[in-house]
Design brief:
about 250 residues, alpha/beta, Rossmann fold, 2 domains, 7 helices, 7 strands, about 45% helix
């Protein structure tokens, strides 16, 4: 191989790397920050991510990891009642340190998690206390809530905390479990207590056929991702978006 050929190949490689870096800078970036106790929030975010991905947007995931082990389900009536009581008083659950790379500008940050006794989860509250201002100040933040049904206090409290940290808070996306009351409350309580109310052998099965969110809701999350992706790619104002609250269930 001649010197000219080697030189040409090296120069081409350098140019390609430069182009790739420039393209990476130009691409829009969305950060999905989430805590998911029973994988319900994660499942919805999978749909949202697919929608965003169709617009060639870089989607990065930041899962909050607790320093203490949380067991799902807690496994007994007493453990469930204890968890409900402590979360009602907004107990913080410490989380691992974040990679410094997350503390940079994003085109959108989605802050997602379940409702715990009318409030954001302990890991999300811990994140806001420790890293909220550094991570979220002057960033557009979309609250993304997965809950049994009672989401308003969660949203009001989360919105207040986000504004205190300097975030630009967008209208929320809220998904509630599709089973009607009072069966979803009974079903979720029994599930947390270690029972299987959705089992065909359970007397509750006819009223509570499935725990958590439905496949349709995952598809609805993808549709929301498509709308967000279109606005981000077109550099449209995300503050004008209003999604049905909660997103209609089955």
């Amino acid at each position: 191989m001649s010197y000219c050929t080697v030189y040409s190949a090296c120069w081409e490689s350098i140019c390609l790397k430069k182009i790739n870096r420039e393209n990476a800078v130009d691409r829009q970036r969305v950060l999905l920050i989430f805590f998911s106790f029973s994988s319900q929030t994660r499942n919805l975010l999978q749909g949202l991510s697919k929608g965003l991905g169709e617009y060639d947007i870089d989607v990065e995931w930041l899962q909050l990891k607790t320093l203490e082990t949380l067991q799902f389900p807690p496994g007994s009536y007493w453990a469930t009642l204890k968890m409900m009581l402590t979360t009602f008083f907004r107990r913080r659950i410490p989380i691992e340190q974040l990679d410094p790379d997350y503390f940079r500008p994003w085109d959108l940050i989605v802050l997602a998690g379940p409702t715990w006794s009318y409030h954001p989860s302990g890991p999300v509250l811990s994140l806001l206390d420790r890293d909220g201002e550094r991570l979220l100040k002057n960033q557009e933040v979309l609250p993304f809530i997965s809950c049994r049904g009672y989401w308003r206090m969660h949203h009001w409290g989360l919105r207040r905390l986000l504004k205190e940290k300097g975030a630009e808070v967008l209208s929320p996306v809220v998904f509630t479990h599709p089973v009607p009351e009072p069966w979803r409350t009974i079903g979720v309580f029994l599930k947390l207590a270690g029972k299987t109310p959705e089992s065909g052998k359970s007397w509750l099965h006819n009223f509570y056929p499935k725990y958590g969110h439905s496949n349709r809701q995952v598809n609805d999350a993808k549709a929301i991702g498509l709308i967000l992706g279109k606005h981000i790619q077109g550099k449209k104002d995300l503050g004008t978006l209003r999604f049905p609250t909660p997103v209609p269930a089955d």
